[in-house]
């Protein structure tokens, strides 16, 4: 549980609707103040402000449309219709046009309540024209938070593409075959059943935050030793007949020197993220790389949780870069997750060696020999579930009449 809390503290959550709530509260308070102090002019003032903002946004969209029409209509839109593709792409969508139309109609009907009509219209035209200029200069441009929110909401980040590629091109193909590969591996190797638990039958995928991956796990931690490879899986893929997919089995040593066999590997797409951060032309620094690694982890976890083919066949392990100074940190993280799997997964059926002929002996039916039988007394307690419907309690019967008759 502590491991899960540490991962939750590192992984960024999707952005919520708090900015919308704050904006709605701010507008409500402001409009309430305007209606309180200027009830006659409130409607016209609100309509004028809405018209100014929407018309300024429409003018900015027209500036973008000029560029798209002259230079990109064939290469980017491939002759697609102007109204259905190019206009919405430039911000000239139905919501903006509708808002501007409603605001203009409202302002026309309430124009008599505007103070200093000439000055009001002059101010409206001036703000409307300045809006696209400030927009193209970046003064009113989208912030980094807005760009990040758009990219995450529309799945446009590098991490989203890498996570989907890792799932569709690898995990969805190999995870359904993992159990059969482990069974075949057991048949050809002499393994200690106590060290190969339920958690070891999953593919452990390591996701280091620094994206720096070693091709050999034993180079990172000498408590991890390569043991052998699982049987190869050959799958016809993209024109390649019998493309080989394989997994490696490692022995992880705990503090007591006991070996725990498990199937471990790094998330391969992190090599791409690390290589991108080393290329100056990619414009991908260390902060961006860390953010993309966290988004990769969150996206991949969400994909696998909703995948029926991969369910209960994997375990993602996030390695915090701040703790990598410990030379045995990878092995400790693996052992912690294996122990957690063993504690969280319980077998509901009794062990096969347990005697079930007389699972429960009542006090009235127990003989002296049974009470002193060490085998029966040393059995583990079992939970008995009755399928019979519950019966009502018997009410006490009056027997005074019978005692009276006997006297």
From TrEMBL:
Domain STING transmembrane: 45-155
GO terms for MF: 2',3'-cyclic GMP-AMP binding; cyclic-di-GMP binding
Stretch list, region Disordered: 385-407
UniProt feature, compositional bias: Polar residues: 398-407
Keywords from the UniProt entry: Endoplasmic reticulum, Membrane, Nucleotide-binding, Transmembrane, Transmembrane helix
Catalytic activity, reaction form: H(+)(in) = H(+)(out)
Pfam families: STING_LBD, STING_TM
GO term, biological process aspect, one: defense response to virus
Gene Ontology CC, one term: autophagosome membrane
Subcellular location, record wording: Cytoplasm, Perinuclear region; Cytoplasmic vesicle, Autophagosome membrane; Endoplasmic reticulum membrane; Endoplasmic reticulum-Golgi intermediate compartment membrane
Coiled coil feature spans: none
Family: Belongs to the STING family.
Descriptive protein name: Stimulator of interferon genes protein
